[in-house]
Amino acid sequence: xxxxxxxxxxxxxxxxxxxxxxxxxxxxxxxxxxxxxxxxxxxxxxxxxxxxxxxxxxxxxxxxxxxxxxxxxxxxxxxxxxxxxxxxxxxxxxxxxxxxxxxxxxxxxxxxxxxxxxxxxxxxxxxxxxxxxxxxxxxxxxxxxxxxxxxxxxxxxxxxxxxxxxxxxxxxxxxxxxxxxxxxxxxxxxxxxxxxxxxxxxxxxxxxxxxxxxxxxxxxxxxxxxxxxxxxxxxxxxxxxxxxxxxxxxxxxxxxxxxxxxxxxxxxxxxxxxxxxxxxxxxxxxxxxxxxxxxxxxxxxxxxxxxxxxxxxxxxxxxxxxxxxxxxxxxxxxxxxxxxxxxxxxxxxxxxxxxxxxxxxxxxxxxxxxxxxxxxxxxxxxxxxxxxxxxxxxxxxxxxxxxxxxxxxxxxxxxxxxxxxxxxxxxxxxxxxxxxxxxxxxxxxxxxxxxxxxxxxxxxxxxxxxxxxxxxxxxxxxxxxxxxxxxxxxxxxxxx
Length: 496
Description:
Helix content is about 40%, strand content about 15%. It has about 500 residues and is α/β, with parallel strands linked by helices. The protein is globular.
């Protein structure tokens, strides 16, 4: 081919290529490896958190955790409960604590109908595990640093991202580890791109459970994930947050750097309800009598502080209670009451191993909305343990401004509904039952400014709009939702 024809052909190929690069290169730059630009045109405050860097996890730490689990998974399996399951005559009632009700816990009514032989069999298994724990006295020296742990995957990514961004808004720069159940719930676009830019990394729990030559695997779902996520995290000091528990303060100083956590090593928060455990639990746990100093209410573990260096023995026992939770220890510790799950396992494990813990005394408060027919509960306010230690259980005054409150809010556990942008626009919670009026979920602007010092719901909706529009074609469970961004925009424009 003559040279002039070769030149013309080259030019003909280069010109279209340049056109393609002209139009598509900006898209790649805008939506590439580390930057995401929301498609929403609405103006709202969008915070620049800077580039939060994650230190790589030390391979020696990973190997150490694998070896550690290889040993203790064997011990937990060897001492599994032998009865088929715990049977109940009936479910325990859900009795809220009244504001003027003080004092300590009374022995609850037993509703377990298993035989004495079943109870004795569980006591023997529990005693064998406890004997090994006491003999080997495991220490948490292999873990390093301080950080936040949560559970994600599937529908839990949405609220976990909101919680992460709200954490960053407090000024907290602590690293975050997000545990997902298995490889199917690991989303590379989130776990390898979006989340690391905010100082968070994903871990696949199934890989940790199966790691090491001697590790035994267990069938783990739902409530059981929490204790294992805390155990397998690289951190020595952990603030665990449910994906829907929103931090309202920087835990670095307010929690980790303050009493009562510094001296106790574990902080647990209260639920609304009077405790309902079976007295048989104390027999199985080897306690000679019912403890005399327990709080009246059950626990709520949407948030939990624990130091693994000082409380690893208690954490391992909590793992045992959770692995064998659904059929045995959950019904033992709640007897079918509302919220039955992991909620009682951590305080029970600390009690049995004689590890110190602090239970917040200030009552959990609720936030709610009126859907046109009835008041619907929207979430729970949990309080600052440092303030609680200083002032104790103080009566709630709805007219009190945040500046006058002695025990400040620390978390908003937004669990009904969760702050999942896709679910919010699809499931009807944003409207009255007749569909005619849009709703705030946590009270009026004035009420929230009085309670929290600012309009928390507006701040969260800034993030819902930002992430919902930015990630509607990235988060897998959002991809099938029609016009998600525009529907979020409509709610924002109407209310905020």
